[in-house]
Amino acid sequence: MTVGDDLQKICAEARPLIEDRLDLDEQLRSLRDFATENHLSWATIRAILTAEAKDKRDGGDRIQKLGEKASLATDYIVLMINAAIVANNRESSPQSPIAGLTVAAPIPDDGSIPSYLRR
Hints:
Blueprint: H1 3-37, H2 42-58, H3 62-91
């Protein structure tokens, strides 16, 4: 085979794959726009779905690690809110926007939150 024959073979096999990818990219853009319009984090959704797909293929534990990171981030946010409340109480400022803030809310158990993101 010549270089030209090899190039033709590669192009013939790659062309439909590239066309499919362009179609998928367009569909994903639509989903991203929908998520953004509904105040959802597309980056988080994409990361979770990607981790699920990779875990399914190779039996990895990416989802577990994402859940652990989310738990650590939540704990840090609660810690920072508590520190702000303590600082606010020391100042006794009645105009504070965080006065009376509820730090933790119960996690719904109606299936709306995937089990790997619940504590």
